[in-house]
Design brief:
This protein has a ten-stranded parallel sheet, with helices on both faces. The chain is built from 14 helices and 14 strands. The chain has a single domain, classed as Luciferase-like domain (TIM Barrel), CATH 3.20.20. By secondary structure, the chain is of the alpha/beta class.
């Protein structure tokens, strides 16, 4: 066994991925519990019992994609408020929320995030998104371009960090007889003037002395530059080991070019799991989960990502890079589309094979369909190859899959030194190594 240099970081999504596709129809799906806040408290507590680094809640501010509106498990509830609830029922696990810089002003974001950080004792984290849609819910006819969204996001982060510096982090000194109250920090205006924002400040919300970790999920060229400059972690979709290795190496080069340490950005791919006692059972679980997705729906998704219609192609015909038109400008997710084009260029799959790929059926995450042992072997292989610094659990298909993921994977990795046996300290940043950089 190779020498273990660093322990892995492990997070888990609180989006009910085990209800994806048709899995919510299973008798054991517990779909009816999604309306009970206690269900998410239990999930967070179970993740904490497994000593995970954090739980994570994605978010979408637009209408669900076609075909999803009648399915359960939408992410319509505010993730930061959910994390605030979980802060009162956990004590160590990180609470990674999602908030959009495209639709929320920096002052609002700065106050909400730092309040969560303070209430949780330094356990908040922020997944920075620039959003893919939802503009009509915020008075916009069209989404700003990707370049504009990322440019405003970079400026928003600059404003937010400046506002956080105005927050008092210590106990106040009070002299009642003299009528003096020293809040331990003199809050001065920041008077920020930028291309997108003009913010006076100060914030004045109660703060916490430890850093609040920043995450980002885009893997397009502009997304990588953004992550390399400001993020402490990224979980961009990596459907295979080679993609993850390339992403990690590229982010290290870009981080150094922007004056940061090479390992400043921790690469944590999403790990989509379909686990069962045998590989055959896991494959059946995967088939059942996606049985309700018609060929027409898969072809429509493929057309939207690639920019041309393949509905009249034979299923056995191979697709090559030469078949692809130039990248479409109006694609919903540039990252997702680029991953799909890369897969075609690399493996030239048949149309039938491509329609069953995670990039089409799911969200292009790394996927393991098999036993817990096979998942652990895959994790060790990726870690030893330098493909990642950790991963985020996305259990799929069934509640038993979720149970297996939490009960077996962290403890098995802890046995060979790849993961912790318990928590040291209670703040999120030091656990990630952010505080010591």
């Amino acid at each position: 066994m190779p020498k273990i240099q660093k322990q892995l970081h492990i997070g888990m999504t609180l989006a009910p991925t085990w209800l994806s596709g048709d899995a919510w129809r299973r008798e054991d799906s517990q779909v009816e519990r999604l309306s009970d806040p206690c269900f998410f408290i239990e999930l967070a507590q179970r993740a904490e019992a497994a000593h995970l680094d954090f739980v994570f809640r994605p978010d979408s501010l637009g209408a669900p994609p076609p075909g999803m509106a009648k399915r359960p498990g939408g992410s319509g509830s505010d993730p930061t408020l959910l994390m605030t609830l979980l802060a009162g029922h956990t004590s160590h696990i990180g609470l990674l929320t999602t908030a959009s810089t495209t639709f929320f002003p920096p002052y609002i974001l700065a106050r909400a995030l730092m309040t969560l950080h303070w209430l949780s004792g330094g356990r908040a984290g922020w997944n920075i998104v620039t959003s893919l849609d939802g503009q009509r819910n915020f008075g916009l006819a069209q989404m700003p371009s990707a370049d504009e969204r990322y440019a405003s996001a970079a400026e928003a982060v600059q404003v937010i960090r400046a506002l956080w510096q105005t927050c008092p982090n210590g106990a106040a000194t009070i002299d009642r007889s003299a009528g003096l109250y020293d809040s331990a920090t003199i809050a001065e205006p920041i008077n920020f003037e930028g291309a997108y924002y003009q913010v006076e400040g100060p914030l004045g919300a109660m703060g916490h002395p430890t850093p609040l970790p920043l995450f980002q999920a885009g893997a397009s060229d502009i997304g990588r530059n953004f992550a390399a400059g400001i993020a402490d972690g990224t979980f961009a979709a990596c459907p295979d080991k080679a993609t993850a290795i390339e992403l990690r190496a590229d982010l290290r080069r870009r981080a150094e070019a922007q004056g940061r340490p090479a390992d400043a950005v921790r690469v944590m791919p999403g790990l989509s799991l379909f686990l069962a006692a045998s590989e055959a059972e896991a494959q059946e679980l995967y088939r059942e989960t996606h049985a309700g997705t018609s060929r027409a729906q898969k072809l429509a998704k493929l057309t939207a990502m690639l920019g041309f219609d393949l509905s009249d192609w034979e299923g056995s015909r191979r697709i090559t890079a030469a078949d692809l038109p130039p990248p479409a400008q109006g694609v919903r997710s540039r990252t997702h589309a680029e991953l799909l084009r890369r897969k075609i260029a690399r493996s030239e799959p048949t149309l039938d094979a491509l329609l069953e790929a995670p990039e089409v059926l799911g969200s292009a995450h790394w996927q393991v369909i098999g036993t817990p042992g096979q998942a652990i072997d895959a994790i060790r292989d990726w870690a030893d190859a330098g493909a990642m610094d950790g991963f985020i659990l996305f259990p799929g298909g069934s509640v038993p899959c979720l149970d297996l993921a939490l009960a077996i994977i962290p403890s098995a990795l802890a046995e060979d030194g790849r993961f912790r046996n318990g928590y040291v300290g209670s703040d999120f940043a030091s656990r990630l190594g952010v505080a010591t950089q």
